[in-house]
Design brief:
alpha+beta, 2 domains, 7 helices, 37% helix, binds zinc ion
Amino acid sequence: MAEAQISCSKCGKRFPVETVASVNTARDPEGKERILNGALFVHECPHCGQKNLASWPLLYHDPAVRLMVWLSDGNEGTEARMREALSAEGPEEYTLRIVDTPGQLIEKIKIFDAGLDDVVLEMCKFVTRQELGKDVDLLFFGIEGADHEITLTYPEKGEMQLVRIGFNVYEDCAGIVSRNPDIKKAATGLCRVNRGFVEHWLR
Ligand SMILES: [Zn+2]
């Protein structure tokens, strides 16, 4: 556990915050909770009470679902070192991902906790974007009910909008992925599976 100083976005005063470099959910289930509820990234200013959003590079490791997600700060050198470390360590049958924001990290956790495949889900988002006819960034919100209906969200006019899609859409997309082994192959190793990833294949 380390500390960093941040400047409050409201009053400008500096204050120390705790930075966490890694969370292993087997050893630290509370750490996972603090990621999911945002507590790890929201820092209340002791001077004025303003809630400041700030994050640092973080390795999330959930052995239960064989998932490692690297929350990157965009530093290519650090990313290369992380890629090297993980390929040398060779965690077999692991899903290894890079994300760029805490929101994306939370989404990955929810997707894998739900037992879903993020490549397939990105494809569902692609299809849904086309059906909506809107250029929006969709996020996985949850899956529920006996029908396994999937809920996606996107921001519009300052509010979160919900889109529900049937599980048949997910199954259709899973079919596309399984018929195109190159897509799956491109998603092995430490990589970003996001909108850009899937648009590369469907363009
Ligand atoms: Zn403040």
